[in-house]
Specification:
Blueprint: H1 2-28, H2 44-71, H3 73-80, E1 89-90, H4 91-97, E2 126-135, H5 144-163, E3 171-173, H6 176-183, H7 188-199, E4 203-205, H8 220-237, E5 244-247, H9 256-263, E6 268-271, H10 276-284, E7 289-293, E8 304-308, H11 324-327, H12 356-371, E9 378-386, H13 392-410, E10 417-421, H14 424-435, E11 448-450, H15 472-502, H16 512-526, H17 538-567, E12 587-588, E13 597-598, E14 600-601, E15 608-613, E16 620-628, E17 633-637, E18 645-651, E19 657-670, E20 675-682, E21 692-696, E22 712-715, E23 722-725, E24 729-733, E25 740-745, E26 752-762, E27 786-791, E28 795-801, E29 805-812, E30 822-828, E31 836-844, E32 851-856, E33 860-865, E34 877-879, E35 882-886, E36 890-896, E37 900-903, E38 909-917, E39 936-946, H18 952-956, H19 964-974, E40 978-981, E41 1006-1015, E42 1022-1032, E43 1054-1056, E44 1066-1072, E45 1088-1090, E46 1096-1103
Parallel strand pairs: 1-11, 2-9, 2-10, 3-4, 5-6, 6-8, 7-11, 14-16, 21-22
Antiparallel strand pairs: 7-8, 12-13, 15-20, 15-40, 16-19, 17-20, 18-19, 21-27, 23-24, 24-25, 25-26, 26-31, 27-28, 28-29, 29-30, 30-39, 31-38, 32-33, 32-35, 34-37, 35-36, 36-39, 37-38, 41-42, 42-46, 43-45, 44-46
Helix pairs in contact: 1-2, 5-6, 8-16, 12-13, 15-16, 15-17, 16-17
Family: Belongs to the glycosyl hydrolase 38 family.
Subcellular location: Golgi apparatus membrane
EC number: 3.2.1.-
Length: 1104
């Protein structure tokens, strides 16, 4: 067996070399120079040469596919699963079981009456930990800075003062974004006091991320990045490593978060905003504390202890026990004479010797009732709310009154209670001690849970699903910034390592590190649960947008400086001039709320050079678009060989072309994580292959402005249905609407119905209208458009112009990943709508019944079931990167480049909400509707795959994976190639060479999540070390993986890091916890590593 594998692997290697050699030879094949272009017909010789090249590539890929299928067998067993015991609580099953009947529970409205026997604690007293906290939103009603100056700095200043008055006092803090800003503004003396408070256990930093992130829309790159940013800050400034997670305010919870916390070495976590019916069910069965396990985990290595708060809110009225009317009397900020009071009309009373017995007894009754919902005799009671403890008087009111109660309770042995202030970890430690286990292990008798907690409802049918789409413009900008940050981190790390290797680091702009650091913090800030969610005030959204754009511009500079250095043949000639950068930017944004405008490259007598950056760790064959000012453009490789191109018009509207601007699309092979140098020439000899255009006006009398060089046929009336096809797919469209109707895969008799339509939801007429958080539709929800069809040798597309949306569907005529799916782009503008939500629905004959699949944070897939017993809005889920439906024969995946809300409301359907415009508040504290809509571009890919070995049993399991092709399609969509034109119009005096950083091909289930240079002692400068973060993706082999791309194979999770980076050696390699806080064992002797499927691993490395 082993010999067979070795032979296979060697065969694969030899084949890969052969593929590359052949492709290089193919790259030299030139177009036939003797034929010229005429009218709308392509020169047959050019087309046939191009077609031959494409077919030869196809054949090579086909043979490569045979090899992949041999190698992958053992990697496929993972997705089949079957190992590991099943959990006690599986969230999909819980949803199916619950009636969601919302019965009145008495004083605990969403629960039930709790009773107890007075002697229950005689043998084992109740241990109560009251945990003071202040929830600080880094932006919501006010901007981050305004909150800091008005409230947060006063909270932290008072904290230092007041905590030192009594060693029994405790406080927890979670948002490092605020804490670091405060730290920068305080004295050395105050810093020393903070370190003492942390050291003696009075102050605990919980979770320790830059923010408390949203868990629905955030992508796992950004979730990890903000966690690293916070943890690195804490380690450097305070010398502390967080132990427990605290997430009281995100609107629903993803199972990705417990995985990230577990891999960061945290041992416990707390959550609060869970559907009230689930809280009630878990409370009734004493399942509010559980071990949270990943659905795909075969050996319980991902288990983390989780505490779910039982009641409506994290404020004081809803945390001491089931009766808010009583608990509110123990929120001493609400003492009479203050600015806030108790809505239940019974105010708190200051604790005195005269009333302490009666008050303590009343509070103890609530504590005992709450403790009946949990399995242990240790009780957690949070004490705080939004921006609490901002005045010394509040510290005194809460801490002095509670201390009097504790002193009384603890002095009465007959009450069998021990009450005190505590931190979150004090509570977890006491619980672990009580049940006799070390922190992090499973307490005996506690359940294991898998799944997630979407979608959230806080009362009645108020589902917080609207925020999966709210402010999609910024959700998109977030991902653009994320892709740029990852690209900039990797290129900066490689450029710096090469500069140090050649001794030229003195010339390199190390100041770029401060730009990287600032971008990490701005991206981190935007993961906050009122930022990426779209649930902040309009002025706050503008503040976030300005920060995102500022960092995006800076990251383009970092990428340009690194690319400049890396493509130079002679590194000694490198000269960084910030005033005159070597390369220009690929696009520009006029303001934080405008779409990007692509740079137009001006051609003249001398060639213009382009540097194209591929941020993927796989080589890709891509169609690279460039805007130029000349019809007569040729594109050559750096060696001077012509590359296949397509010339298209650049359209300003449905019927107007932009004068003197053309799009040249180049078919280029881009090295993995590398830079390819291309040359643009103005050449009057042989024209580039132009596309031809058909314009259907549907009876409208519209003037059409065209360019002579690009054949354009105008049809006043409607068209018949028509199709576009490449070697993999045929997509057919309605002549009337221009919308997709069906797809047929090559080699299949039957087409698959995949029809698309736009829907508009209104809001319902009753009192509770939709707003930024809630999605309350008024039931299920027309002029024909102008349709423009473009056909060409490298891609063809259909664009339909509707009143509020234009949709483009493009089919690439290239081998490999890009030609296997349809690119779908929606340009949405609903600024004149009133109370409407716009959705795009795909309807197919896939027999998906009530099941569909959505991703969580781009990290994993969660199966979903349409619940008929729940209202329509309850069936929407977050879709950060993909959603799919399937039956025994087919799977249809919608890949997305931005987080949006998605559902499948009927068998065979997928529906995504593109934008929402709502004129009113939805009574969740924001105080305004959603009226600041922008022109927004939503980008998707639609992938239809054949399933070869589906079985019913496997499909019923609560776990699913994308195919390898699906993973790669998602990566192509989310990591676009960046085209950087040389800034000067004269050619460089020095030789430029493409940069190929990797010496071997990475297995195609490995993803380099980041290569993040770590900070030096001076945190604005880079150190010699970097964090290499790798993710091995789990994938489903039952889908046919045709033509993935060149020599893309898997390796059973093994990777030789020592020889990965060409021209650099691995000076050191230390496996660490996810956020680098803990080394995992001694540094290994070998530089080969192994990762199990789905695992993310961090290595502290030094490249020399």
């Amino acid at each position: 067996m082993k010999l067979k594998k070795q032979v296979t692997v060697c065969g694969a290697a030899i084949f890969c070399v052969a593929v590359f050699s052949l492709y290089l030879m193919l790259d030299r094949v030139q177009h036939d120079p003797t034929r010229h272009q005429s009218g709308g017909n392509f020169p047959r010789s050019q087309i046939s040469v191009l077609q031959n090249r494409i077919e030869q590539l196809e054949q090579l890929l086909e043979e490569n596919h045979e090899i992949i299928s041999h190698i992958k067998d053992s990697d496929c067993q993972f997705a089949l699963g079957g190992k590991g015991q099943s959990p006690d609580l599986q969230m999909m099953a819980v949803y199916s079981l619950l009636p969601f009947d919302n019965q009145d529970g008495g004083v605990w409205k969403q629960g039930f009456d709790i009773t107890y026997e007075p002697n229950e604690w005689d043998m084992e007293p109740l241990q109560v930990f009251v945990v003071p906290h202040s929830h600080n939103d880094p932006g919501w009603i006010k901007t981050f800075d305004k909150y800091y100056y008005d409230q947060t700095q006063h909270i932290l200043n008072s904290m230092v003062l007041k905590m030192q008055e009594d060693p029994r006092r405790r406080f927890i803090w979670s948002e490092i974004s605020f804490f670091s800003k405060w730290w920068d503004n305080i004295s050395a003396q105050k810093r020393a006091a903070v370190r003492r408070l942390v050291g003696n256990g009075q102050l605990e930093m919980v979770t320790g991320g830059w923010v408390m992130p949203d868990e629905a829309n955030s992508h796992y790159f950004a979730m990890i990045d903000q966690l690293i940013e916070g943890h690195q800050w804490l380690e450097k400034n305070i010398g502390v490593t967080p132990r427990s997670g605290w997430a009281v305010d995100p609107f629903g919870y993803s199972s990705t978060m417990p995985y990230l916390l577990k891999r960061s070495n945290l041992t416990g976590m707390l959550i609060q905003r869970v559907h009230y019916a689930i809280k009630k069910h878990f409370a009734a069965t004493q399942n509010l504390e559980f071990m949270w396990r990943q659905t795909w985990d075969p050996d319980a290595s991902t288990d983390i202890f989780c505490h779910m708060m039982p009641f409506y809110s994290y404020d004081v009225p809803h945390t001491c026990g089931p009766d808010p009317k009583i608990c509110c009397q123990f929120d001493f900020k609400r003492l009479p004479g203050g600015r806030i009071n108790c809505p239940w009309k019974v105010p708190p009373r200051a604790i005195t010797d005269a009333n302490v017995a009666e008050r303590a007894q009343l509070l103890l009754d609530q504590y005992r009732k709450k403790s009946k919902l949990y399995r242990s005799k240790v009780l957690l009671v949070p004490l705080g709310d939004d921006f609490r403890y901002d005045k010394p008087q509040e510290w005194d009111a809460q801490f002095l009154n509670y201390q009097r109660i504790f002193d009384f309770l603890n002095s009465q042995p007959n009450l069998h209670v021990q009450a005190q202030f505590g931190t979150l970890s004090d509570y977890f430690d006491a619980l672990y001690k009580k049940v006799g286990i070390v922190p992090g292990m499973r307490p005996p008798g506690f359940p294991v849970l898998t799944g997630d907690f979407f979608s959230y409802a806080d009362r009645e049918d108020h589902y917080w699903t609207g925020y999966f789409t709210s402010r999609p413009f910024y959700k998109s900008l977030d991902r653009v910034l994320e892709a740029h940050l990852r690209g900039a981190e990797i290129l900066f790390s490689l450029a710096l390592a090469h500069a140090r290797h050649t001794g030229t680091d003195g010339r390199y702009p190390l100041s770029d590190y401060a730009l990287l650091s600032n971008a990490r913090r701005n991206l981190g800030l935007f993961q906050h649960h009122d930022a990426i969610t779209g649930t902040a005030k309009e002025a706050v959204a503008v503040d976030y947008g300005s920060r995102l754009l500022h960092s995006l511009t800076n990251l383009k500079r970092v990428i340009i400086n690194a690319a400049h250095y890396l493509v130079l043949g002679d590194k000694n000639t490198y000269h960084h001039d910030p005033a005159a950068p070597f390369l220009g930017m690929d696009d520009m944004r006029a303001s934080q709320d405008s779409l990007p405008e692509k740079t137009v490259v001006k051609l003249g007598t001398l060639p213009r050079f382009l540097v194209v950056f591929n941020p993927l760790e796989q080589e890709r064959l891509s169609v690279v678009p460039v805007l130029v000012d000349s019809l007569h453009t040729r594109v050559l490789s750096e060696e001077g060989q012509p590359l296949p191109c397509q010339l298209s018009a650049h359209w300003g509207s449905a019927t107007d072309v932009v004068p003197d601007v053309y799009q040249v699309s180049v078919l280029a092979r881009l090295p993995a994580l590398g830079l390819r140098v291309l040359q643009l020439h103005e050449s009057f000899g042989r024209p580039t292959l132009a596309s031809s255009v058909r314009l259907y006006l549907h009876g409208r009398d519209l003037p059409v402005h065209q360019q002579e060089a690009i054949p354009l046929h105008v049809f006043p009336a409607a068209a018949n249905d028509f199709c576009l096809e490449n070697q993999h797919l045929r997509a057919c469209f309605s002549g009337h609407s221009g919308l997709l109707q069906n797809i047929r895969r090559a080699g299949e008799e039957q087409e698959q119905r995949v029809s698309s339509e736009f829907l508009v939801y209104g809001t319902r007429t009753s009192k509770d209208k939709s707003g930024a958080y809630l999605f309350l539709p008024d039931g299920e929800a027309k002029d024909p458009p102008v349709v423009r069809v473009t056909e060409g040798p490298l891609f063809s597309e259909v664009v339909s112009y509707y009143q509020h949306v234009q949709i483009m569907v493009r089919l690439y005529n290239v081998p490999g990943v890009e030609g296997l799916s349809l690119e779908v782009t929606c340009l949405v503008d609903i600024r004149d709508h009133i109370n409407k939500e716009l959705a795009l629905r795909f309807s197919t004959d896939i027999e998906s019944d009530d099941t569909f699949f959505t991703d969580l944070n781009g990290f994993q897939i969660q199966p979903r079931r349409y619940q008929r017993k729940l209202p329509l809005q309850a069936n929407f889920y977050p879709m950060p990167t993909m959603a799919y439906i399937q039956d025994a024969r087919s799977r249809l995946t919608l890949h997305t480049a931005q987080a949006l809300g998605v559902s499948s409301l009927a068998s065979g359907q997928l529906e995504v909400v593109l934008d929402r415009r709502l004129m009113q508040d939805d009574n969740r504290g924001l105080g305004q509707g959603l009226k600041d809509n922008k022109r927004t571009c939503n980008r998707f890919r639609l992938l239809l795959e054949r399933r070869s070995t589906a079985n019913k049993v496997q499909d019923e399991r609560p776990v699913s994976f994308p195919s390898l092709l699906s993973h790669l399609t998602s990566m192509h969509l989310n990591a676009e190639a960046l085209v950087l034109p040389m800034a000067q119009e004269k050619p460089p005096p020095l030789a430029l060479h493409s940069f190929l950083p990797l010496s071997t091909t990475l297995p195609c289930d490995f993803h380099i999540l980041n290569l993040r240079t770590l900070q030096a002692e001076d945190d604005s400068l880079p150190s010699a070390e970097a964090a290499l973060i790798l993710h091995r993706k789990g994938f489903d082999c039952s889908l046919e993986a045709k033509n993935l791309g060149f020599n893309c194979t898997t390796s059973q999770g093994r990777l030789a890091l020592g020889s990965l980076f060409q021209g650099l050696e691995l000076g050191s390699l230390q496996p660490t916890s996810l956020t680098l806080m803990y080394p995992l064992g001694a540094a290994p002797n070998s530089t080969s590593i192994h990762l199990d499927p789905m695992e993310i691993a961090t290595f502290r490395i030094r490249l020399v």
